[in-house]
Amino acid sequence: FGEDENMDAPGRLLAFRDTPDAAVAVAEARANHLRRMPRWPEEIGPGATFSRRRLDRPARYRRYVVLVRHPKGSALEDYLVVRDEPASAEPATFNLFVLARRVQQEDRVFRFDGQLGVDAVLFLATPPPESVTLAEWGWPDRGADAAVPEGFVAGRDRHRQGELQQWVRLRARPNQPFLAVLYPYRKDAEPPQMEALADGGGVRVTLGRESEEVYLASTPGRGVGGEAVIRRGGKTTVLLQKAVPAE
Description:
This protein is mostly beta strands. Helix content is 0%, strand content 56%. It contains no helices and 16 strands.
């Protein structure tokens, strides 16, 4: 929230469910204060303290995370869907760090040139990417801190040493939810096509003849049937129904 500020409060788990189709977790934090924090680790010195300020009204930040699974032989890889629901008069910022050498933005799609033979694509269903900052952090050339496991055969992956994280930072107006898909795939494979549904309350993921929809929201859209729902192959799986309070 705010300008480089964090919620000065712990989080708590609201709901969790694990099924063969997907696993979903919902957690939130509520705070009366925001604490200013540096953006970069090297800006934090020994014993450093940072100022905090009291909010006129308590702030809430709620997050849904879904791991969408697929059976053997599916054209689709397993992937993550994340929905954040900030509730505050303060503007909010969505941050994502991906282990990759480069990132390229194409409107709502962010393509990552990854490491260890895996690339990734981020699809931003909501909000519109009007205020995006791209940055990176890590040790791209330090062999002693290599992120490659011992005995790993890189194959076509040319990145064998170091760690480099690509940082996607997206700011939005107060109370604007975020919904994003993070989809990893092999470097010799094609990523799926993705589109937003239900005014940003869901996404459709399509690869070849396979297509599925994922819906996440504390206040579900009409006809969705729950706070977390997956539709694929003519089947609807309600992961969460009346399990999370609207407020």
